[in-house]
Specification:
The chain is mainly alpha-helical. The protein is 72% helix and 0% strand.
């Protein structure tokens, strides 16, 4: 990414949020780098009571629809690879009611990234057919839901 683009991300609040506080500027695997940042933010969010955590996920999802839509329109590119706010929310969905411990954070990370990258049905359907900010967000929300189910099954000792 050139200096002009980087400056745009760091000077526009919409781009700054959409690009995950700059993590989406990573030249390699911006979605994975964005998810790493989401892990650190999760460490703060995980201290909240359950209802507050759910509220934050709902707020960040709703905000994400707007900021991802606005950022992509300003850039003239639908779902630019550097837009990683959706990875934040998807990972936080994965980690809802996750057991405590770094091993669960890592397992959640791996599961979310697998579903987000592989996009099995119906994730791929929504990724291709829903436009705008909702379209950018929804595939990661569904990937987070799939990863959440798998994480819960693993946590309860059910073979996946």
């Amino acid at each position: 990414m050139d200096a002009q683009f980087t400056k745009k991300v760091f000077t526009s609040p919409v781009h700054f949020l959409a690009f995950g506080f700059g993590s989406g500027l990573s030249p390699k695997a911006p979605g994975t780098v964005g998810t790493v940042v989401a892990v650190f933010l999760y460490l703060l969010l995980s201290q909240l009571p359950l209802l507050a955590y759910l509220g934050m996920v709902l707020i960040t999802f709703s905000l994400g629809i707007y900021i991802c839509d606005r950022s992509s329109k300003l850039l003239g590119v639908h779902d630019h690879g550097g837009i990683v706010w959706d990875e934040f929310v998807g990972y936080w969905i994965t980690m809802l009611l996750a057991p405590n411990g770094w091993e669960w954070i890592v397992i959640g990370f791996i599961l979310f990234r697998l579903f987000d990258i592989l996009k099995p049905f119906p994730i791929n359907y929504f990724d291709k057919h829903v436009q705008g900010g909702l379209g950018i967000m929804i595939d990661d929300v569904i990937a987070g839901g799939f990863a959440w189910v798998c994480l819960q099954l693993i946590a309860f000792g059910v073979a996946v």
